[in-house]
Amino acid sequence: MPAIAVLQMTSGIDPEANASTLVSAVEEAARGGAAMLFTPEMSGLLDRNRTRAAGSIKPESEAVALAQVRDAAAKAGLWVSLGSLAVETPEGRWANRAFVIAPDGTIAARYDKIHMFDVDLASGESWRESNAYAAGSQVVTIERTPVGRLGLSVCYDIRFPALFEALGRAGCDCLAIPAAFTVPTGRAHWHVMQRARAIEASAFVVAAAQVGAHEDGRETYGHSLVVDPWGEVVLDMGGADSGLGFCDVDLGRIAEVRAQVPSLANKREIAK
Question: What is the DSSP string of 177-209?
Answer without folding.
Answer: --B--BHHHIIIIIHHHHHHHHHHHTSEEEE-B
